[in-house]
Amino acid sequence: MDKVEVDLASGEQFSPAFRAISPDCVVPVLELDDGTHINEVLAICQYLEEIYPEPTLFGSTPKERATAVMWSTKVEQQGLVGMRDAFRNSAKGLRGHALTGPVAYEQIPELAERGQQQVVTFFESLELQLEGNEYVAGDYFSIADITALVFVDFARWLKIDFPDDAVYLRPWYDAVSARPSANA
Amino acid sequence: MDKVEVDLASGEQFSPAFRAISPDCVVPVLELDDGTHINEVLAICQYLEEIYPEPTLFGSTPKERATAVMWSTKVEQQGLVGMRDAFRNSAKGLRGHALTGPVAYEQIPELAERGQQQVVTFFESLELQLEGNEYVAGDYFSIADITALVFVDFARWLKIDFPDDAVYLRPWYDAVSARPSANA
After folding, report:
1. What is the ipTM of this complex?
2. Is A69's Cβ below 8 Å from some Cβ in B?
3. Does the distance separating the beta carbons of B114 and A121 come in below 8 Å?
4. Distance CA B74, CA A24 (A)
5. Phi, psi of B146 (to 5 degrees)
6. What is the Cα–Cα distance from A86 to B36, expressed in whole angstroms?
7. CA of A69 to nearest chain B CA: how many angstroms apart?
8. Are B124 and B163 within 8 A, CB to CB?
9. Domains, chain B, with CATH or none
């Protein structure tokens, strides 16, 4: 599988050449052999899971797969979306780019604040889930752990850390981020 | 499969009994035989697809399934989220409930405006996609059509209609909404 870097810093995602591949101007994009482009993360991951089923990243039963998809979605929609709002509505370099894509949306300072609150709240949800489970979706490593690792690393980069009283988040984070693939 | 109604108008989704089932205070929730609760729409639909694979709502090949998931996600994240923002940040009855869930988020009027713009923009994306495809994900009826039908019906309820110059949206809408299941 060839990997092609897109230079987001210089705005390559808005170029006509890249928009022909990803009209939403977002990465990542998976190009299939027949030229079809898939540019939504979950769709890409599920496609790759079908093509390379071992080791599984979604689980081994319908229930496990549903739980992994549910938790990965929660991390994205509650955690990562809050982070995106916090970041894109406050970073000076992203004025006029409060959302990804070709349309210019102005920053909304109140939305940056709300995003911060969502991140803090989602840390609490994750702590609660990890209280009863070794991994985010249960007793198996899954796509939900990968999405959650991205969430935590991004949050800490934004200087929002684990809640002080978190007991379960840290050992989960240490275990998951120590996996060789976490540094790939 | 038993169906249990949750009275959102009276706030039943915030009751301790329902929060034990759906901590995010959202519907729908699928309860599995072992008591597991799945409360994310895509996870529920994919679980049901596994249990009842015929007729398929996701497609018959890895490529078709990836395309259906991609488009259903786009409808949700670009169309329905814009609608949610437009509605929840302006409706008088939803003050303090700009997001679903147990945390009180105040309305942000600028976000209501942005949501309206997103809905209009997403109608254009959908029109463009339907120019080259009979259905949203290609030449087969899929979950993406169902999600898009919800989007259009909700938009029209909010008095945002097809763009005047839309050519492909209307016949698609008429065909999809005429299916017996659309009135189930």
Report:
1. 0.95
2. yes
3. no
4. 9
5. -65, -45
6. 33
7. 5
8. yes
9. 8-51 (3.40.30.10), 62-183 (1.20.1050.10)
Q: Do B62 and A47 touch (CB under 8 A)?
A: yes
* Chain centre to alpha carbon of residue A152: 10
CB contact under 8 A, A117 and B108: no
Tell me the sheet residues that pair with B42: none
Output the pTM of the full model.
0.96
Average pLDDT over residues B98-125: 96
Which amino acid belongs to residue A91? A
Sequence-ordered strand ranges (E) for chain B: 30-31, 37-38
User: What are B89's two structure tokens?
Assistant: 């940040």
What is the rounded distance in angstroms from the CA atom of residue B71 to the CA atom of residue B136? Answer: 7
76-95 of A, contacting B, C-beta below 8 A: 78
For A72-125, write each residue's pLDDT tens digit. Answer: 999 999 999 999 999 999 999 999 999 999 999 999 999 999 999 999 999 999
Q: How confident is the model at residue B1 (pLDDT cuts 50, 70, 90)?
A: confident
Please report, for residues B80, B87, B172, the alpha-carbon distance to residue B150 in angstroms, rounded to integers and kept in the order given. 8, 15, 13
Distance, CA of A141 to CA of A134 (rounded, Å) = 9
Q: Does residue B183 or residue B180 have the better pLDDT?
A: B180
